[in-house]
From TrEMBL:
This is Aminopeptidase P family protein. Residues 8-138 form the Creatinase N-terminal domain. One of its GO terms (molecular function) is aminopeptidase activity. Residues 191-211 are annotated as: Disordered. Residues 146-348 form the Peptidase M24 domain. The keyword Transmembrane helix does not apply. Keywords: Aminopeptidase, Hydrolase, Protease. The lineage of its organism: Bacteria, Bacillati, Actinomycetota, Actinomycetes, Kitasatosporales.
Amino acid sequence: MSELYAARRTRLRDRCAATGSAAALISRPANVRYLTACAPPGAALLLGPSDDVLLCGRPLSGDPSEGRPVDDVRVSVLPGRGDDPVVAGADLAAKAGADTLAVEEHHLTVTRHRALSQVAPQLRLADLACAVEAQRLVKDDDEIACLRIAAEIADQALGELLESILVGRTERHLALELERRLVDHGADGPAFPTSVATGPNAGRPGHLPTDRRVEEGDFLSVCLGANYRGYRCEIGRTFVIGTTPSDWQIELYDLVFAAQRAGREALAPGVECREVDRITRHVLDAAGYGERLGPWTGHGVGLEIDEDPQLSPAAMGKLDACVPVTVEPGVHIPGRGGVRIDDTLVVRPEADGGPELLTITTKELLAL
């Protein structure tokens, strides 16, 4: 496993060397974890001229959610409470003889950037930009294996909830139960705050659970995800509570399902990201619901729950094989509720069977 992370750091080091930087300082947590298998709060990684050092503001906790650093990265715990690992990294690079340090300017605050210049005024700071994020875009087999397990955990948690009595329980209670079940099945925690929305709240993107109780005839929309070894998946489903769905519920559900299926089927290497959005959005536009769809229809997932690529009208670039994305259209009608259907998939060529569906909980409109 250490060889995998060493290869990632070598790729980044070679890129820095090609642009004239003798060292690089990584501060964005997901990027630190991608390169070291570990991301303690506030830690920074120095890819130095001589060795690679993970600088931490406190001793490692051993918490699985932080990960465990690979053996070929030296861990340095700063002696002073409140010492900044990023500033310490710049100082260490200067002392090691580096004359140029590549930093993630998009992650540094102005205050931190000034502190770097003050602690090592002889260092020329260069912008690393999103070089690590670009490396993270296409996932290797180990990363996809973690995403598969995360999806299995989310499917298990959701499946168990659907077998329980739901009427009379609050959105907040159901969300907490789902998050407990994620951990019970082996997740490090939820991938993001779990959303449970009932009745007029159903289908609302990013809905925060309230004390509203589930009632007969409600739409119930759920969006959850598991964090497994740092990798995060996402699943969203909509159901009807306790009775046969009404005509308007069936019509709206079938429409969103058709849009989601169109988006899933459009996923292939070489397809423009905005084309997947256009295909998904067209189904809802044709039925007069296009204005109720959000600014995107999906996004990449991995060490962060929302990363590149973005599936939106203004998105640039094309899909690659082995890139995991969500397809998650939804329609919310104020005062009535709505439908959201969300899957995590891995882009695969047609020769390999097309997009690989990771979240497999049924998308049939169930009456629970």
